[in-house]
Amino acid sequence: MTVALELEREAARRGLSSAFVATGQTGIMISDNGLPVDRIISDFVAGMVEEMVIDFSNRHDWVFVEGQGALNHPGYSPVTLGLIHGSMPDAMIFCHKAGAKTIDGYENCPLPSLNRLIEINEEAVSWLRPDRRSKVVGLALLTHHLSELEVHDAVRRAEDETGLPATDALRFGVDVLMDALVRHFSSWMEATKPTALSME
Fold it and tell me: What is the CATH number of the domain that holds 17?
């Protein structure tokens, strides 16, 4: 939620038409919009998120959807999948607790590598959109449990491991993440730009 809110704020600061889609109660209280996905019957999550994203996309160029849970979480994976399939993101920012080896509260559930976690999120989008694959373009690290020196090391390790820009949104802001999104969409627009045809 925090990362999505900060990205929406940064987009607005840059003069971009942007909106935040809340998917939890706190986000709804902050933004005065959204869906409390943990109170929606799972059959309807994807459809209701899709409806809201389409509505916001018709009014804004940039729509930031609040993520919830994780695809590999034994308790919350259905929520995450519903959000991913409902929003069908063109790009994603992956949020991760720096240094985590297991899922909080589920110590018997070890975490795979960052690259594998990124891969399964991209794959989940591709199941429904194989023609236009969504990419994770940046990492937002949770580092409240680390010292200042440890944070810089954690950010550097995440970047080295994945080849993606990383930051802690609370400590350092989201500039690098917004830059990554802008680069992604600029290159995507260039790659999909129709070729001019000369009719003779």
Answer: 3.40.50.300
